[in-house]
Structures are given as C-alpha cells and as structure tokens.
Amino acid sequence: MRTNNEIWTAAGFGVLAGMRSMTAPAFLTRELSRKPTRALKRALPGLTSKKVSQRLGLLALGELVGDKSPKTPARTVLPVLTGRILSGAITGAAVSRKRKGARIGFALVGAAAAIASSYFFVGFRRLLTQRLRVPNVAAGLVEDGLALALGSRLTRALR
Question: How far is CA 35 from CA 5, 94, 99, 113, 158, in A?
Fold first, then answer.
C-alpha cells in the first residue's frame, strides 16, 4: 500500500525536475548511492552508482550555471519540457523502489508534477524579472536556492 509520504516525495522530485531537470536525479542518485542494498543495486543499478551520482552532480551544476544565459531555451519548449517530464518520471518511479507494481503510478505523479512545476516557475521567473524588476541572474539564483532546499528536503525523506 502506498503511503501519502511516498506520493508526496514522488511529486516533490517531479517539482524539482520541473525547476531544474538534472538536479532531481542528481539529488536522488547522491542519496541512493550512499548505502545501497544488494536488492536496490539490482533494481536500480544506474541510480545507485557513485560514478553516475558524480556525473549527474556535474551536469546539475552546469545546468545551474547555464540557466542564467539569455541563450538558454525556455523550459516549456517541447524538447526541454520532454527532458523535464522524463526526469520527473524517472525520479518519481525510483521513490517507489520497494514496491514492484507501484512504479508506473509514481512515475506518472513525478511527470505530472514536472509539467506543472515547469509552467509555474516560468510564471514565477516572469513575475520576478518583469513585474518586480529583479535581474534575470538574481531571479535564477532565487530559483536555484529553492531547488537546492527542496532537493535537500527530499533526500531526507528517503532516509
């Protein structure tokens, strides 16, 4: 039986994926690679690897830097949004790692949260930059801070 906490955690990873697509799997793999059980290594070999965790961390860092560039495409254009949806689905499904049949439901929760979050944070960023006249870099740093705080909170929920 699914608990509300697991569903909220899957949704939280989806929200994080909508904010920063690589940050969600980076936080997840960092936590899962700390002390993976044998069963977890068999079920999610890529997500429990320390090397994968380090590489995803570097990609997430690159995304945090690249997000501030005016040449970065909008998060809601189809190819970028698709990446966020996949990130939300994968991290959402991984939250249900102890349940064999629940993965698809958690993946859908993560994907839906990533879509909603992507559009919400476009509006949030627009509010900061256009209405409140906050420079784009500063608005991006605010969003980065929110993403890092959420990622930290979500990894504690996995312990």
Answer: 21, 15, 19, 28, 12
Question: Of all helices (H) and strands (E), which one includes residue 115?
Answer: helix 103-126
Tokens of 88: 């939300």
Q: Which two tokens stand for residue 151?
A: 């990622």
35-74 pLDDT, tens digit each: 776 666 666 777 888 899 899 999 999 999 988 888 889 8
**Number of other CB atoms surrounding residue 39 within 10 Å:** 10
On whether the CB atoms of residues 122 and 77 are closer than 8 A, the answer is: no
Give the Cα separation of 46 and 40 in Å (integer): 10
Say how far apart CA 116 and CA 1 lie, in whole Å.
26
Answer for the pair 52, 33: CB distance below 8 angstroms, yes or no: yes
**Backbone phi, then psi, for 74, in 5-degree steps?**
-60, 145
pLDDT at residue 43, as a whole number: 65
Tokens representing 48 are 């429990």
Q: Distance between CA 17 and CA 33 in Å, rounded?
A: 19
Among candidates 30, 56, 27, which has minimal Cα distance to 147?
Answer: 27
